[in-house]
Design a protein that fits this description.
The structure is a single chain. It contains 13 helices and 12 strands. It is an alpha/beta fold.
């Protein structure tokens, strides 16, 4: 039985790692527990996720880059099969992005297999390394989150009223996620009291939190800037009619938050990241064009929200029906079994 090191060995705030590791085991491979040096030495496959990440700070960035490249060359010269998951176009934070891109390019050129979680990734791959052999790139479904989070702590931060259409942004609030556009769109929709915006998640810094709070001027907007516990997720998702994914498409390509929404039977309003362009072809999500200009981007988001609102007022069951169709797709096409079959193809 081939042995696999899945890097990282665990995800502290991201259940994706746990779910993918389960799929590796379901595919019939012996999975390394801790990715120790001994594990790596005795492995047949080393599968990297987000390995291209580089920290801020000149010396930390350089030392991390040197260490990571040394590991990659060691694995290559040792004859290990290297697999790389192409999650994003570039590192989300600009600091260290140059060194990060060097690592990404090395992995794209030298890996034996590349995992893609959306079809749009194939073109993005060519934009990073134009001469890459795309034959080694394989679409592997992103895991769903059906039944993953325990419903143990009811969310009390917002009380939904009859007839309201609730748009939810949930997750860590970081600049690339572009929450500013949600706030500005809410500010432009004060004439629609039945449209409510709910932003839930801890900000990446106190300074950033204060900036966002200073922008908020709409009574339709509810901002809960704290860490959302796993046990609150089911009830919070239950409040939402639609999930917002206003991400900057310069870096973002895939979104675990989209699959989380689909797993709870929710459609999304999202910039045209790869995950969404795949689903747009089925007419189940609301995509809009990202703009670097906040005024234009907020207007694009506002119009997408109003499209959902129009569909909801025409047929109150239309939004829920889209969400339920997405749920069925997740259960069938993004199951552990479906992922395991694709991993067999890329690991062998």
């Amino acid at each position: 039985m081939d042995k696999v090191c899945f890097v990282p060995a665990e995800g502290k705030t991201n259940r994706y790692v746990e779910l993918m590791r389960r799929a590796v085991t379901a595919a019939g491979y012996c999975l390394s527990e801790s990715n120790s040096f001994s594990d790596v030495l005795h492995s047949d496959v080393v599968h990297f996720n987000w390995y291209e990440g580089i920290p801020q700070g000149k010396w930390a960035a350089v030392s991390t880059y040197v260490r990571k490249m040394a590991v990659l060359w060691f694995l290559k010269l040792s004859g290990k099969r290297i697999v790389f998951t192409f999650h994003n176009k570039v590192q989300h934070e600009k600091a260290g992005s140059g060194l990060s891109k060097r690592i990404m390019k090395w992995l794209i050129r030298n890996s034996d297999g590349i995992v893609l979680h959306c079809e749009a990734s194939r073109q993005a791959l060519l934009e990073v390394v134009p001469d890459v052999d795309t034959q080694k790139a394989v679409f592997v479904p992103h895991p769903n989150y059906i039944g993953i989070y325990p419903d143990t702590k009811p969310y009390h931060g917002f009380e939904k009223q009859d007839g309201q259409l609730v748009f939810l942004f949930m997750g860590r609030v970081r600049p690339y996620k572009n929450v500013e556009s949600v706030i500005e769109a809410a500010n432009r929709l004060t004439d629609y009291p039945d449209i409510q915006f709910l932003i839930c998640g801890r900000c990446s810094s106190e300074e950033y939190r204060q900036e966002l709070l200073a922008m908020a001027a709409s009574p339709n907007l509810h901002f809960d800037p704290r860490f959302i516990e796993d046990g609150e997720i089911p009830s919070l998702m239950g409040l939402a009619d639609c999930v917002l994914l206003p991400y900057n498409t310069r870096s973002a390509l895939n979104s675990g938050a989209a699959y989380l929404a689909f797993s709870y039977g929710k459609t999304v309003v999202s910039t045209e990241i790869g995950t969404i362009t795949d689903m747009q072809q089925r007419g189940l999500v609301y995509g809009y064009h990202f703009s670097d200009c906040l005024e234009e981007d907020a207007e694009n988001l506002k119009n997408a929200v109003l499209a959902v609102y129009g569909d909801y007022r025409t047929d109150p069951g239309a939004i829920e029906e889209k969400g339920q169709t997405l749920y069925r797709i997740m259960a069938q096409e993004n199951s552990e079994e479906a992922i395991a079959e694709k991993l067999k193809q890329i690991y062998r």
